[in-house]
Amino acid sequence: MTTKTKICGLNTREALAAAIDGGADYVGFVFFAPSPRHLEIAAARRLAEQARGRGDIVALTVDATDAVLDEIAKEIAPDFLQLHGSETPERVVEVKEKFGCKIIKAMPVRTSEDAALAKTYTKVADLILFDAKAPSGATRPGGHGQAFDWAVLDAVSRDIPFMLSGGLTPDNVQEAIRATCPQSVDVSSGVETAPGVKDADLIRRFLQAVKTANQS
Ligand SMILES: O=C(O)c1ccccc1N[C@@H]1O[C@H](COP(=O)(O)O)[C@@H](O)[C@H]1O
Questions:
Q1: Which residue intervals define the domain N-(5'phosphoribosyl) anthranilate isomerase (PRAI) in the entry (predicted)?
Q2: For residue 143, how far is its CA from the centre of ligand 1 (angstroms)?
Q3: Is there a catalytic annotation at residue 101?
């Protein structure tokens, strides 16, 4: 199986170009004010126009209101909404119907019980994203560069196509792919030099590492 790639938290034209030119399948923009990767709508619209047709555009939100999602849908027209909060399966259905986007639902994982909860979303989300649970006291539910024990995914059916994230880097992504056989891998902190500061070289190294894994 060929593993796809998502580079998330892109916030400059240069970093976005490195992702697109390097063959990223998905490019992610963060709409969550406490995040160092948060984008205002106008900036996101310009980046989305740079990306459109060259990779799937993903808009990441956290328990967003209909008003926020409506603005994102109209102004950015993303291919996917990544719901990275405590959205219930019912809310996922509602968002998908109201805003006409495919849905990536993030599942915070520490234990195999956490991973098993994904089953309640497989019929309503287009893709499940397994991410490490945020550290206690964190002001955002993801993007901390922390991995979880990939073995806890063993109990989840291999039939579920999922995206893997949490602490991935150019150096560990090949091992992550071997261990979990994900549909795709997603990175933010691992291609940054500081929170919110993407590095074109690290983006290229990450994409190359996945390509190499796909060839072996
Ligand atoms: O990146 C953020 O700031 C963020 C904010 C709120 C929710 C999720 C966020 N990031 C996502 O978290 C995972 C893992 O990121 P990392 O590679 O461990 O830094 C990924 O999906 C990010 O897009």
A1: 6-209
A2: 3
A3: no
What is the CA(25)–ligand 1 centre distance, in A?
Answer: 17
For the entire predicted model, the pTM comes to 0.96
Which own/partner contact pairs does 72-77 have at CB distance under 8 Å and 24+ positions apart?
Answer: 72/31, 72/41, 72/44, 72/99, 73/99, 73/100, 73/101, 75/41, 75/44, 75/45, 76/29, 76/41, 76/44, 76/45, 76/48, 77/48, 77/52
CATH architecture of 4-215: Alpha-Beta Barrel (3.20)
As for the ipTM of the complex, it is 0.97
Segment 6-27, tens digit of pLDDT:
999 999 999 999 999 999 999 9
Instruction: Name the token pair of 204.
Output: 């290229």
Q: Catalytic one among 56, 79, 131, 186?
A: 131
To the query of whether residue 131 is one of the catalytic residues in this protein, the response is yes
The gap between the terminal CA atoms of the chain, to the nearest Å, is 11
Q: What are phi and psi of 79, to 5 degrees?
A: -75, -35
